[in-house]
Specification:
Blueprint lengths: L1 E10 L3 H6 L13 E4 L4 E3 L7 E6 L5 E5 L7 E3 L6 E6 L2 H5 L6 E7 L1
């Protein structure tokens, strides 16, 4: 079963968005509420003030690792086989009852 993430998600494909992500932000930007990092199996939370959830995904968008409530000044790594990462608002993993092995989908905003 595919679990649909109904949150405005932006794909961090540009250098500037990949570089900045959620750094230095005190709130999610108004135009989007989640960030998809293609071809990214690890992230850091340096200079982030927001608490958020992390979903690591394989090439088929199957969850490989879930991190609820990230902490600042940390590195987070997906396990072997991880290809992409989603940064979601705090509490989303719990709200959607996501589990490792779930397939997820979402609509990207342009």
């Amino acid at each position: 079963m595919v679990k649909k993430i109904s949150i405005r998600t932006v794909a961090a494909r540009s250098f500037s968005l990949r570089l900045r992500g959620l750094m230095f932000r005190s709130a999610w930007p108004g135009e989007w509420s989640a960030v998809y990092f293609p071809d990214c199996s690890s992230v850091h939370t340096f200079f982030t003030n927001l608490k958020f959830d992390l979903v690591f995904l394989d090439a088929n968008k199957i969850t490989t690792r879930l991190v609820e409530t990230t902490r600042s000044w940390r590195f987070y790594f997906g396990p072997p086989g991880t290809q992409d990462t989603l940064e979601l608002p705090f509490g989303t993993i719990h709200q959607l009852d996501l589990k490792v092995g779930d397939e997820v989908s979402w609509d990207e905003i342009k």
